[in-house]
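Thread title: Can someone regenerate the structure for this chain?

I was given the following input by a collaborator and told the matching structure tokens would be attached. They weren't. Posting the sequence so someone can regenerate them.
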Amino acid sequence: MPVYKDAERGTWYASFHYKDFTGINRRKVKRGFKKKSEAQEYERKFKERGRQDPTITYEVFEKEYLNDCKHRFKPTTIVGKENCQRNYILPYFKNVKLCDITPLKVRTWQNEMMEDGAYADTTLNRMHAEFSSAMNYAVKYYNLQQNPCRIAGSMGSQSASEMKIWTQDQFDHFIQYEKKAAYRVAFLTLYWTGMRAGELLALTPEDIERDNMVIHITKGYAVVDGTEMFLTPKTPSSKRDIEINSQLHDELLKYIDGMVIGRKERLFYFQRAGMLKEFHKISDKAGLEQIRIHDLRHSHASWLIHKGIPITAISKRLGHRNPATTLRVYSHLMPGDERSVADKIEESFRNP
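Best answer:
Regenerated them for you:
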């Protein structure tokens, strides 16, 4: 693995030939290494990237895996994957070959992650899901014989162990303390529609019908690496129309009429962090237990459930892919015993 000294600059560089994915022979030159060993390490890792076999290290594989993901997932999803890999997986498996990642090693990693209750169940579940996703990719494209994460089993839970909700009385008490028009309308909309925060922040005046009490959900809003983005809905079912009551409709129209913005401009000028800060500040003023912004969505679902709204209707309103998702998340809020839950499901499918 020869490397070369740049006499003029006093640095090292790597110069070598390799075959690209089409089989064409190409030359690669990379300059600016302070040490000979750094240039040699660069060449080694570069050539490993071209080897789609399970003897490469996880560090090299992870870069290729994430690069592939960037062409297939939304930027917000990629940020989550990168954070999970960087913070929880790479520190343990960076220098391990793919073929040496056994179910027992995965199990040992899981035990360390679960030790002392350092991470929430949902965080643990995300770690495992991301690791398993990467290993599935290795099975498909790097000739790994099996997914060790699948054999090791999952950890954590997809749903938070404790879902915090506000009753209507609690929310009514909270909103009395909010004097800023934009935040007041935003929190009212979140509580009485159950929409996601990203969906709220993406709303424009043209999404609010004037002659009908309907809000059109067609996109989401996020900031990735300082860049504002309008994203397609989370799932096809997330693109939906939400019917609202006359009070919320009037509040929204009054707010829109008091602004000087175009029909396609964002209705709420603040970012998610600013909204969260205001939400917690007003919660403290109102003397209420702190909950997450997302818990307003849960609170709306809880209100609908206790009003006897069928699961299928709740699922459609929330933009879930199917009623089974809604039931999985909110079944513990159903009144009565398991029989009443089953009756609710049966009734909802009889009367969609």
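The radius of gyration is 26 Å.
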